[in-house]
Every structure is written in C-alpha cells, then in structure tokens.
Write a structure and sequence with these properties.
Layout lengths: L4 H11 L11 E6 L2 E6 L13 H20 L2 E7 L8 E9 L28 H9 L7 E6 L2 H11 L1 H8 L1 H9 L1 E2 L2 H7 L3 E2 L7 H9 L3 H8 L3 H14 L3 E7 L4 H20 L3 E4 L2 H10 L9 H18 L5 E9 L15 E3 L1
Parallel strand pairs: 1-11, 6-7
Antiparallel strand pairs: 1-2, 2-4, 3-4, 5-8, 8-10, 9-10
Helix pairs in contact: 1-2, 2-11, 3-11, 4-10, 4-13, 5-6, 5-10, 12-13
Length: about 350
C-alpha cells in the first residue's frame, strides 16, 4: 500500500490539532516505508508538569487519536506500536495503516473546532443526552477510568483544589518565568510563534490584563505576593472554575507510559464529544501533575514545604470527591455551556521528515 505525501501531510496536520500543555506541541514526525513514526520533544513541555514525559505522552496520545479518526474518514485503519526503538526513549509510536471498510467516526468532524474555553460557564445541569455522549465516546477504553461530578458543592471544592496550581506558579520564580515566557502578548507575536499561550485565550478583562502585563516582572510579582496577591488570583480562578456544569477526571489503572498515551486518546475523544454537544471545555489538571513530582520525591526547586502541603491537601480533596482508589488521577477538566472563546491558539507547521 502506497500513501502519497499529500495524504501524510493531511493526516499529520489533523493530528497536531491535539491539545498540549501551554500549547507546547512536543512532537515531530518521520515517514518511512509507509510507516509514521512519532517522536516526542520533551524539552518543549513545562518541566514541572512533564516528569518522565507524562505531559508529552498525554499530548501525543491525543495526537494519535486525531490521526486515527482522520484515517478512518479516509478509509484507513491504524495499528499502533508503542516505543518501537529501545535505544531512543523519544521514539513514542509507529503507526501502520491498512485499508478498511469500517464506518468513519463522526468525532472527526470536530477536530478543527475543538478548543479551550477559559470563560465562566453556565451552572445549568448537563443534558442527559450530553452526559451519555461523553461516556459513550470512551466506552472501549479499559486501562483508564472516567468519572464526572455534577454536584454544585463538590464542584466548588474541586475548583478550589485545582486553583492551587495558580498559586504555586505565581509564587515560584522558575514556574513564573516559564509561564510568562510562553505567553503570546500580541496578535502579531501569536501569528509568528504559533505556540504558547495566546493572551486572548486567557479571557482577561481590561484591569486584569493591565496587571497581568505588570506581573510578568518577577520582582513586582514577588512584591505583590507578600500582600497575598497569588492567593487572590487562585481564589478568583476557583470562582471561575466553579462556574461549570461538571468536572471530570480520568484516572489510570496502571502508572505506565503506555497508560498515559491511552489517557491522552481518551481525553481527546471526550473533548471532541463535548464539542459535538456544544459544550465548553478547559483542562484544570496542573495540581495532579505537581502531585506526581511529590510522590516521586523530585520536588527540586519547584515547591516550598508550604506548597507541597497545599498540593497534597488539594489532591486529597480530588481523591475524596471522585471516590477514586487504587488508581492514579492524571487529567481533570471542567465542562459546561459557555459559548465560544474570545480567541484560539495557532499551531506550528509540523516537522516532518520523509525518507
């Protein structure tokens, strides 16, 4: 079977519409003998969230799902071989394609419109058919567990737990530096870089936008932190997060590299199903990745003792509310009816090597 170059480019361009931490896009591609090899670029991802490439693996899982969906629409089925080169830990997957007569998956129609929406959502209860759509989208996954919380009081507690991420980021020099260095401040910068956090997607009002520009200076940020500003930001974000119809959690039954890729595929399908239902969606998972560092005793310069205590406490709240046991929570997100975002982040042209 011969796949033409134009078709490879089409499939890969669909793949890279996948979400990644801070829109880091930690991937590149090699096409050889009708096999697509996907490599990770872990240096692109935020090191605080990317312990053992966990963040990059989730992103690549979502990318693989996009390619699988796009292939189905073109009459192909993919077979995935994970970690095909033992001598290169950044070789994540080989994708093999075969002709199929299977019906295309309708979620493919929503790949290009899927996006992050950081606005407050309506607290209206999710429609039963929308909840059913979310769960049906991942019914074939066995290595992970998907749960959804819709009780308003529990949502408020989860929102507060998730907002610990913002406090830690704004109170830590390294995390603050990384975060602000990845913000695209103008339309022109966003169009040029095509990666990182586009300012418009952060949904700030004018006063907040002014202070946000001011606080990219660490010394000013640190001064205001002494007055409790980071805690105020966290409280404000918690209020926004609580304006949701539901908060979801994906947990892994085994803490393996393969399972993080599966979690990424599951996340992408849930997100596309939400888009199909007209639901807004935002990842609020940072505190869970911080917890992975604490469990691995790889705190380094990222967290103070107080931060560790806050992260552990937030993680305990999440475990308690979702009633998860003997699994590893990895991805938390909020959904609701929130309209469209004010802006969308662009994508880099994918790096593809044809052999």
């Amino acid at each position: 079977m011969k796949i033409e170059k134009d078709l490879w480019i089409k499939l890969i361009n669909a793949g890279v519409q996948a979400p990644s931490g801070d829109n880091s896009q930690p991937w590149k591609f090699l096409v050889k003998d009708d096999v697509l090899r996907i490599f990770s670029l872990p240096e692109r991802d935020n090191p605080a969230y990317n312990l053992d490439q966990k963040g990059s693996l989730v992103a690549i899982g979502a990318l693989i799902e996009n390619i699988a969906l796009s292939a189905s629409a073109l009459g192909y089925l993919i077979e995935t071989k994970l970690f095909p080169d033992q001598n290169n830990e950044n070789a994540i997957a080989d994708l093999y394609f075969s002709v199929t007569s299977c019906k295309k998956d309708e979620l493919v129609e929503f790949i290009n419109s899927r996006c992050t929406n950081r606005k407050p959502y309506s607290k209206d209860t999710l429609k039963e058919e929308d909840v059913s759509e979310l769960f049906s989208s991942v019914k074939n996954f066995s290595g992970s567990e998907f749960k959804l919380v819709q009780d308003s009081k529990e949502i408020e507690l989860l929102a507060k737990a998730a907002s610990v991420n913002e406090r830690v980021v704004l109170e830590n020099y390294l995390l603050h530096k990384y975060f602000f260095s990845h913000v695209c401040w103008t339309d022109q910068e966003e169009a040029k870089k095509r990666s990182g956090l586009y300012l418009k997607t952060l949904e700030f009002d004018k006063p907040t936008n002014f202070f946000f520009h001011l606080f990219k200076n660490w010394y000013i940020m640190n001064l205001f932190n002494r007055l409790g500003f980071a805690r105020l930001v966290a409280a404000t974000n918690a209020k926004i997060y609580s304006h949701s119809a539901a908060i979801g959690l994906i947990s892994l039954k085994a803490d393996t590299k393969e399972s993080y890729i599966e979690a990424g595929r599951e996340l992408q399908r849930i997100w596309l199903a939400a888009e199909k239902c007209g639901l807004s969606f935002q990842m609020i998972t940072g505190v869970l990745y911080f917890m992975h560092r604490i469990r691995a005793s790889k705190v380094a310069n990222f967290f103070t003792k107080k931060h560790c205590e806050n992260i552990v406490a937030a993680n305990s709240v999440i475990l308690s509310i979702f009633k998860v046991k003997d699994v590893t929570p990895v991805l938390m997100f909020r959904v609701g009816y929130g309209g469209r975002p004010s802006g969308n982040s662009s994508r880099l042209s994918p790096e593809i090597i044809f052999m």
